[in-house]
């Protein structure tokens, strides 16, 4: 039996602990009209664009050079993706992960910012998870979810199936391989561990699950990026992530999406929004527990990470000279430095919305490609800045079922979140970043530590002290264990 922290069993009234966020319908962030997306935001943002340029010493002319360079590159890359379709999304077999991904595969995955991993969990085991979830939903009518009138993405965080999947050795092994894409330029010395990240140690970030019905058209989730909205520009630390993109000229080409340096201190949630991730979630992801094919309500991705990010970050600084022309030519766009226009952003939204109207140069109508067919037990991961959506219609014959399981590394930001998430898990409550609801506290069959089969799994969920993998990580491991176990 692994050591279990007494603090893990503390009652949920612990005043120092963050609780789940105020109840706000799951639907809120998804239904955004085009006019709302293109309206100016609050007046307090009026000076923001010039402030950002002044911080970096970037002249308007230099920024315009970057814009033109990004638009030219987009013309080439969007055409390529439109031609490739689903083939633009890399896939690897789990056996490749076990052997070690080749350098060639790494480059492809790094550039696309997404990957499908096939065959990690056995089909039989994954289907068993889906069956148990269907039984659970049937046994507890009234579980909340999205859409609210006919839930298909359920407010379930603590089921046995999720617990087993999150701690499955092949899932954790996959996550370790993908977390290694990050962190090449992090500082390697920190007395208190705050600046350190251990990319060899995945920790679990709880999210929900989806059992989408055949024929469904109500699960509306257009192109978006999670991890905050206007916070990308407004938060003084978060915007440092985009320093290279906003420094003018060709510097955007040096932007490294896998540099976590500023992300640890970034506030992605300035407005206390439910569903907003406050952890360092390197890769978003899901594990398939059914067959999911294109046209069957599956995930769509824009497999072009660095260039798309550069465009999204530069976009608020420019506007069309004549919005009615629809022209994408750089000469028909001009600087916009004194407005509160942040197309696709809203104050207090959990994600950055994108559409053909707000981000026309991404040619989303052609570049949002459905992922290749996944079988039960396959996994999909996409970078935390990756543009993603869900097909509007499920034209298949069976449930399209996935459990949202991302990849997050050990760092102090995540250790503190894990501490609070652990308490909620023990009591069957909603995970801290999500809207408060009745939770699963009265479900006798919910997940427990008995569903975790390995030491690594216990560590990932915060029930066993972390181990040191490299001497420079001692301050982090010590601080994380102190936060979780009071050692
Ligand atoms: Fe999302």
UniProtKB/TrEMBL annotation:
Give the InterPro entries listed for this entry.
Gig2-like, IPNS-like_sf
Q: Which Gene3D superfamilies does this chain map to? A: B-lactam Antibiotic, Isopenicillin N Synthase, Chain
Spell out the residue ranges making up region: Disordered.
1-31
Q: Which residues form a coiled coil?
A: none
Q: What ranges does the record list as Basic and acidic residues composition bias? A: 15-31
Ranges of compositional bias, category Low complexity: 1-14
Full protein name: DUF1479-domain-containing protein
* Organism in which the protein naturally occurs: Coniophora puteana (strain RWD-64-598) (Brown rot fungus)
